Amino acid sequence: MGMKILVVSDTHGRNTNLKKAILNMGNYLDLMIHLGDSECYSDEIEKMVSCPVEMVKGNCDGLSKLPGAKLIDIGSHKALLTHGHMYGGKTGIGSMRDIARENGADIVMFGHIHEPIIDESEDVVVLNPGSLSQPRQEGHRPTYLVMSVEDDGRTDYSVVYL
């Protein structure tokens, strides 16, 4: 049956595009991951979907009690979730990969830079969904990431532009 996972980041309290991304997933959403800078209460985001939600705290999340990083199991994979600002964002990808490896993770997901990344060039896959509210990549279109995990462990990652 597999899993469909919505990965988002950097919504900065503007949830209109997040709602569009959720709607685009239809009824095929097994997990939502928010990689920080939601700038709203976590329960507000959790109420938008009928699946489990994993969230971490970003540098703009103020007094949030969310963790700055966490490890989660996704099927046969283990993922390190972080906002990425504590590691230097894009320049810290190497250190985020190292931390993931040290903790037995084969995927690291981060936000902060507002630009989508899918990097499968090493043993630890690096993913960044970009930003749904303040995209910085060329064209400045809001983005999110869809992760598909097959029952046999195979994964597929797609950046989706709104």
Q: Mean pLDDT, as a whole number?
A: 94
Compressed to H and E, one letter per element, the order equals EHEHEEEHEEEEE
Radius of gyration (CA) equals: 14 Å
Overall geometry: globular
Main sheet: strands, sense, barrel: 5 strands, mixed
Q: Could you say which structural class the secondary elements and strand pairing correspond to?
A: alpha/beta
Q: What is the share of helical residues?
A: 10-25%
Any low-confidence stretches, pLDDT <50, length ≥5? none
Per DSSP, the total helix count is 3
Side-by-side strand order of the widest sheet: 3-2-1-9-10
Strand content: 25-35%
Alpha carbon gap, first and last residue: 27 Å
Oligomerization: single chain
Q: Care to describe what's here?
A:
With 162 residues, the protein is α/β, with parallel strands linked by helices. It has helices spanning 16-25, 42-46, 93-102, and strands at 3-8, 31-34, 53-55, 69-74, 77-82, 107-109, 116-119, 125-129, 143-149, 155-161. The strands form two sheets. It has a five-stranded mixed beta sheet with strand order 3-2-1-9-10. Strands 4-5-6-8-7 form a five-stranded mixed beta sheet, covered by helices on one side. The two termini are 27 Å apart.
